[in-house]
Amino acid sequence: MQNELITDATLVSNYIKGEEPALEVLIKRHKQRIYSFIYSKVLDKDIAEDIFQDTFIKVIKTLKRGKYNEEGKFLPWVMRISHNLVIDHFRRNNRMPKFSNSGDFNIFSVLSDTALDAERTLIKMQVESDVRKLIEELPADQKEVLVMRMYNDMSFKEISDKTGVSINTALGRMRYALINMRKIIDKHNIILTN
Amino acid sequence: MAKLYSKKNPQTQLDLNPKDETIKFLLDYSKALSVINCNKMKFEALLN
Q1: Which of A39, A60, A181, A193 lies at a CB distance of 3.0 to 4.6 Å from A48, suitable for a disulfide?
Q2: Residue of A23, A46, A54 for testing the chain B interface, max B β-carbons within 10 Å
Q3: ipTM of the assembly?
Q4: Do A2 and A79 have their domain in common?
Q5: Interface contact flag, A36 B16, Cβ < 8 Å
Q6: Whole-angstrom Cα distance, residue B48 to residue B40?
Q7: Are residues A121 and A188 in the same domain?
């Protein structure tokens, strides 16, 4: 009863200070939601169990290393980690496809469809929307150059003419835009590959 | 009275919770893990 009154942020802070029972409250409070989310994606209890475990191992390591900085957003942060691990799981399985051999030669085991399947299409859309959100975070001058170069396919000469800055400045802004995006990606553990 | 022939969603019938062993493993792992700070570097140590 009393546990319900303690916020996630307080529990996280207590856990970081060394109060181990706080973790138990956090796990028990959110286990059903996180596990259901993972299961809804992988549809396999054992795999869901593994991903749930890996998710919390990552949570524990991050908290113990003092790298957690998303105050008040514990559940969305854990959901994001589990989401990334689910994507990793599908990616790993795509790299090493399993064939069930029924004895007869199955032509579909050597033929493959190069078009993206539903899972990969979803991942691609997610990645593209994440990249767009990252671009929105950039300073205006860097964002302008990056959008012109990557989305409008303009040359740096054209960008320089349009924005009224030198080619070198445009190149510099592009470089800083990429560096800044990489920093945000590293900081938030975002996975942007399909 | 009309009969309902639609299948029940299998997910709603399942108890969607991780196993107790998994939770216990995580709590034990947390107790065993300690992070050692050393000159701006961090090392993980698992103590049983």
Answers
A1: A39
A2: A23
A3: 0.70
A4: yes
A5: yes
A6: 25
A7: yes
